[in-house]
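BUG-459 | component: ligand-complex export | severity: low

The export step for iron/sulfur cluster jobs runs without errors, but we want the raw record kept on the ticket for reference. Input record follows.
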Amino acid sequence: MSEVNKKKITDTSRNGRVWIYPKLIKGKLYQYRNIVSYFLLALLFTGPFLKINGEQLILLNILERKFVLFGVVFMPQDFYLFALAILTFIVFIILFTAIFGRLWCGWACPQTIFMEMVFRKIEYWIEGDAQQQKKLDASPLNPDKIFKKGLKHFIFIVISFFIANIFLAYTIGSDALLQIIKDPVNQHIYGFLAICIFTAVFYLVFAKVRELVCTVICPYGRLQGVLLDRKTLVVAYDYLRGEPRGHISKSDESPKGDCVDCGLCVQVCPTGIDIRKGTQLECINCTLCIDACDMVMEKTHRPTRLIGFKSEEHIAEGKPFKFSKRIYAYSIILVILISTLSTLLIQRSDISATILRASGTLYQLRENGTVSNLYNAELINKTPEDMQFEIRVSDPQATIQYINKAEKVEKGGTVKLTFFIILPQKRVNKYKSGITLNILSKGKVISTAKTTFIAPPNL
Ligand code: SF4
Ligand code: SF4
């Protein structure tokens, strides 16, 4: 075991857990990650307040069973579409992982972005670099330690509070959140409690649990074993080039690889692993070790990318990256899912109509030679605008007599109607026949519903 690893393992300052103090280095990839992170953070924080057609960009309101993706509202009746969208996203993630490994984790996952680009930076700013943090943790309680720790945790709680608010904005809606903020606490006691609970959860995640979310808790991380193969591009150490590793020494002239065993790649790793031991589930592909090793290579006048974004096949056999059969198969599945989803979305009607014959009723023979059936209808407006509508039976001889009428359905709202459909009895030639109703708005058919009509046949 190298000295570096021995040193890390003895950093058991927190109840026996190996507490990780990653060393800060600012290489090129770190700078790119900074830019990506700021962009994603801006998107995350403004997302609930950006509206398309009056609807939030993304809303996942489980309580009210209302979901909005890019301004498109999905009601409970559209659950199959939402499920298909989620399935498509999962297949996309599987395909992306099969090609690029855990790149999402290191570069786009909110957990890593907040941990490494927000909370970790605050920690460096207040407590200093990795060595200073270790020293502070090991020191007895004194005014300096109380001040630094107090300030750090106070800022952590404030940021966790903001994250909790944003989380709620995505789950109950930004308008509902603003209402909770504006009104007295006693009017939204559950909303206030939710903010407090989420603040505590986020604080614990970023102040205490940290990398364990990625290495132990996250199910996506645990799936890497089945998603990665020899062709997947991952952050990897080129052992053919690096081994046998060894310090640069004038006295030792035995043949050596390019790895100078400086341990910097281990010291910067936020999950505390040594990438030279091969691909590991704990690696979140944050690429910090690439930056670290590149710096060492530049200093020692060797080619960079001893650690790089490479496939095992490329390292072992020098083969360039090529799509595997598995990637082609996932791509085909993804194309099929996207096509199906797009078709269903295009065909999706603005109004969802359910029209059923009233239960327990038969037909009614009327004195004027007509026969009627009683119906209950429920119309849901899936658009972001209030809508005027009318219902027409496709059979021109049929008429509608309303018991309970409505002509308007509010945006995202529901109306219930009760009515008779009346047909001349001589028109009926079988006991049970199908009947089609069109729902029109502004003279245009926007939805169609089918139901049945029963009557004694005119034999
Ligand atoms: S091994 Fe490298 S890429 Fe993987 S988590 Fe550690 S520093 Fe990041
Ligand atoms: S940073 Fe590079 S040279 Fe240093 S130990 Fe890691 S792989 Fe070897």
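Assignee comment: Attached the raw record above. The pocket of iron/sulfur cluster (ligand 1) is lined by residues 235, 268-271, 273, 275, 283-289 (CB under 6 Å).
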